[in-house]
Task: structure prediction
Amino acid sequence: MKPMTPSPKEDCIDHGMKGNIHGYHSTPFYYANGEKKYKGLHRVVCSKKYDLDIDGDWVTRHTCDNPRCVNPDHLLPGTHAENVKDRDSRGRQAKGDEHGDVRGEKCGRAKLKEHQVEEIKKRFHPRCHKNGARALAREFGVSHAAVSLIVNGINWSHLHGGVSSS
Result:
């Protein structure tokens, strides 16, 4: 594995276009036979710099940790395992409160408090006019889908005390 020295962010070259949810931009890539496929711009730049097969079994590693960056000096080819090791060594994995794995009411998007979720779990009774998903959703100001996800253990699964099967 080639050692990775982090690059200063001020040397980044921003692709300047709309990126996906993670910041990466896809661009048309034309093969010698005229076929067109969309590839990550960072991958295209890296493949050109290191003369690699665009479809090869490699990933692009950013020394700057900036997915919008296409500075060839900040891009290195590597394996998925190397990329994961880079991520972990910089503490960018989503584990624990300090890395973005924020659960429950600590999450900025949460509309409910833990005691409200416990109340929903305790009171829920399927297809009940008073304590069904729709009624509880109205009472607590959330969608009935949110209530269903709670009582089925998908959302707020870190809280104990599931729905009783009575």
Remarks:
- The longest helix spans residues 41-50.
- The radius of gyration is 23 Å.
- The helical segments are 41-50, 80-89, 114-123, 133-140, 144-151.
- The longest strand covers residues 26-30.
